[in-house]
Each structure stands twice: as C-alpha cells, then as structure tokens.
Amino acid sequence: NHTTGPSELRKIASVLRGKEKITVIEDEAIDCIWNETFIHAKAPNNFNRNTRGLPANAYTFTNGQMRSILDKLNFMRNKYSQGKWTNVSVAMDIVSALDDYISDVEEEFAQMVINPPPTPAPDP
Q: d(Cα 83, Cα 74) in Å, to the nearest integer?
C-alpha cells in the first residue's frame, strides 16, 4: 500500500532490530528504500509474474488442508491477542491481518464444502 508501506516497514524493522545476526537499516532510510523498490521499480510489481505457469485458481487445497490452515490461523490469532501481546501495536496489527485472512479462508472453505469437486470416474 503506497500510503502505509513505509510505516509498515518501520514496524517490521523495529521488531527485527537488536536480533542476533540481523542488520536493519535506520528508520530515516526506509522512505527512500520504499520509493526506490516499490514506487520506482523498473519491473512491474504484480501478482501474476509467472505468465507461463497455471493460473492461481488452478491450485487448490483439500478440505483437510483448509481445516489445518484455519486451525493454525486461529492459533496465531489467539496467541497474539492475549497475554503479553495485549496492547502491543505490532501484535494488534498482526491480529487485524489474521482476522481478514481468516475471513477469506473461511469463505473459500465454505464454498468448497457447498460445491465439492465431482468424484472422478473409476480407473479400469
């Protein structure tokens, strides 16, 4: 997002600063990095970079895989919404993103249950 990109990068940087074997640029340089890599990039910043591969909707999950994904997302949401993470701004942002993702995955999973793929014919 062009509006929140630099501030989101600063949040990531603040979490990584001080970690062993990780070098993080200063906050003052983040706007410059953002502009050069996301705004003025020579290559397009798109979600369909692999034009020779299958379209994204060709890749699907099984019901069991979707349940596992939802279980892990809910676990992470619960972890970062209580205890020592309560009122930590980065954790609150993570929970907000997880809420959106959980909603998307639940909607996709519901559609899978309502419209299951046809059963293939037996292989003689």
A: 16
d(CA 104, CA 110): 10
Q: What's the CA gap between 68 and 63, in Å, rounded?
A: 9
80 CB-contact burial (10 Å; exposed 0-12 / middle 13-18 / buried 19+): buried
25-73: per-residue pLDDT in tens?
999 899 888 888 877 776 655 555 667 777 777 888 999 999 999 999 9
Which tens digits make up the pLDDT trace of 12-29?
888 888 888 999 999 989
What's the Cα-to-Cα distance from 111 to each of 44, 64, 106, rounded to whole Å? 32, 14, 9
Within 10 Å of residue 11's Cβ, how many Cβ atoms?
15
Q: Encoding tokens for residue 15?
A: 């979490």
Estimate the crossing angle of helix 89-114 against helix 5-16, to 10 degrees: 110
